[in-house]
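Give me the fold.
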Amino acid sequence: MPDIWKLKDKNFDKFIVNDDIQAKVSELAIRINKELEGIKPLFVVVLNGAFIFASDLLKKVTIDCEIAFVKLSSYQGTQSSGVVQQIIGLDLDIKGRTIVVIEDIVDTGLTLERFRKTLREMEPAEVRIATCLLKPDAFKNKFPIDYKCFSIPNEFVVGYGLDYDGLGRNSSDIYKIVEG
């Protein structure tokens, strides 16, 4: 991919290269393998954005585990709509289980907080959060982010599963929006 990438009406500048992403994903997998050994967690992957991160991470997770998928959405263009839609839901019994929610990015945390509430109603033993990217300046919640690869500024990013109106997910690198 080029250093500057034009998607629709916006330009994006290369921000985090795939080699750096893979190094952080490997570190995260080692930590998860150590902390959750013998627990057999259920990894719940939030589609669509987290599919690449989850694929890379879960190939490196060597402990016994299960994987499920949910589809949540709150974005329109480059802004969160503030309205969370659970499009595909979780249909497993998670009572007493350790759940690790895998997200591509956590910014305000509003979508994730609503989903965490839904999960807690299903009585898991615990709910942990794993994300590739965290925007600490935008985060408006108090729940812990248990596993993260990168903390980034409050800027719009695409690539490595993240999109701009459906485009850009297919880059192995992460790009940030170029303003002006």
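The first helix runs from residue 18 to 35.
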